[in-house]
Amino acid sequence: MQRTAVFALFVAIALGVGTWWAIQRRHQPPPAPSAPWLRLINPADVASIVVTLGPRDAVTLARLDGTDLWLMRRVTESRVMLDGPIRAEQVRGLVRLLHEVDELPSTPNAEAFQGSIRVSVYSDTDHVGEVELGDVALGGKIPIRLHAPAGPRVVLADARLVAVVSAQSLEAWRDPAVLSRLPGEPHRLRLDAEARALSLARAGAGWNILDPVLAPAQLEPCVSLLARLTTLTGRATAIPQADAASLPLRAVFEIETPTQRVHMSDVDTRLLRQTARVHEDPAGRLLAVVRAEWIDGRTTSPAWSDRVVELEARLADLPRAEAGPFLSRLASRLVPADVAGLRLGEPDAATDTWRARYSRTLDGWRRDPEASVITSTESAQITTLLKLLCDTDAATATLDPPADAKPFARLALVVGGHEAESFTLSLGSVPLPSGVTEVLIIRAGNVCRVYHAQPINTLLRWLHAASAPEG
Questions:
Q1: Strand ranges across the sheet with 396-398
Q2: Cα–Cα distance between 464 and 345 in angstroms, integer?
Q3: How far apart are CA 321 and CA 448, in angstroms?
Q4: CB neighbourhood size of 394 (10 A)
Q5: Which neighbouring-strand residues pair with 233?
Q6: How do strand 364-368 and strand 266-280 relate by DSSP bridges?
Q7: Partners of 425 in the beta sheet?
Q8: 233 pLDDT higher than 80
Q9: Residue 33: is its pLDDT beyond 80?
Q10: Cα separation of 123 and 63, whole Å?
Q11: What is the pLDDT of residues 340-367, one digit of tens each?
């Protein structure tokens, strides 16, 4: 009986101690979390990231002059390579991965850590962080040492992080386009091919042709050409630049892009000119020698290294330097309501000699010089003419009018008391599968817009009558 009581006492004491220990443990504060560090880095504040792959092999990802354009530069033991632009979202993705690594708990046995790849993060003014990637993967994990301000610590992270910052992976970050659009919206395009040249320049929301003729351009073909040039891709090749440049030249493509540089509170602009000179080898392969240059006033400097790529395209598929498809099919750039006067005359008469002069008044159109009232039919024809010139696309625009074109009138539009635009009107014919069709040709300078004559026969009769010589 006494032995039973003693045993029960021991059991009660053991249970009491266990309960006390459990309660005390439950009320102990959890381990202090690791001090945040990398995850406090704002991607917008990152100016560059250096990935050290080996003792003499490093890749620098650098933001360009406060913009969202990133350039990749690789330095190896044997040479320096300026690899060109990369996509900003890939850099931001790397920063996000570093944020995730910083959230991992520390691991014991950090003394055995060995690493060879180092990732260093810099702001504009400071070195803000660094991690080292371990060499050995354990169960799909690799040790990573974080050099935090509070002292280094080691975490275990997904081994795929090593693949993200490998030389092969970083090389794939480079923009695959031969002419990159990453720096921004180009404002000038140039094509040289088959002894022809075509130069286009932005004009507000639209485009102008600068060469071979100064004329407004049709928007859609310019947008398509820009998309075609900036999606032209190629494969890297080991062919020396001098050897590629010695082959027959087939085409030259060039784009210019204004980019801004931010220095403290100052912002200035310089041009990035990218040029691809396309050569053809005896096997029919197209080899492009690609160059990128900064143009800052009268100073020109390399933007990144020249390279030779084999184009993934056939010669017949490349853009052609023909102005016709790019010419605006609108004869006039004026708004009909802005036209205050109209002049009609003979095609070969002196420039200041007109058969008919019309002025817009509050009461409608009047015929000068007496400001006489015109008929409703005549007023309707003026309205139809302005709509044709300002609002109606021609069937085609060309620098080569039909050979049988015969001028019958000249026309001027007046704005603010001055002749803003002038045209020569001709009749001609063009062959179609259904037969020969009569056309109206409206010529401004060297550009001819061609309209089918049949739908505007009434207007043509009025134009003939208004501009014909007396008698």
A1: 372-373, 364-368, 356-361, 341-345, 406-415, 418-432, 435-444, 447-452, 396-398
A2: 10
A3: 18
A4: 21
A5: 177
A6: unpaired
A7: 409, 442
A8: yes
A9: no
A10: 10
A11: 999 999 887 666 688 899 999 888 899 8
User: 276 near 289, Cβ under 8 Å?
Assistant: yes
C-alpha neighbours within 13 Å on the C-beta side of residue 190: 15
pLDDT tens digits for 113-130? 677 788 988 887 777 788
Locate 323 and state its tokens.
């102005």
At 364-408, the pLDDT tens digits run 899 887 768 888 899 999 999 999 999 999 999 999 888 889 999
Strongest mean pLDDT among 100-109, 207-216, 233-242:
207-216
Return d(Cα 220, Cα 231) in angstroms, integer. 17
Angle between helices 457-467 and 376-391 (to 10 degrees): 110
Closest CA to 370 of 354, 358, 355: 358
Farthest CA pair distance, the chain = 151
Residues 398 and 323: beta-carbon distance below 8 Å? no
Length of the chain: 471
Mean pLDDT, the chain, rounded, equals: 84
Residue at token pair 């050409």: 225
The one-letter amino acid at 312: E
Give the sheet arrangement for strand 151-158, strand by strand.
80-86, 70-75, 57-63, 48-54, 115-122, 127-134, 141-148, 151-158
Residue 97 in tokens = 């991965």
The model's confidence at residue 243, banded by pLDDT at 50, 70 and 90, is very high
Domain positions in the chain are 1-30, 38-172, 188-325, 336-467
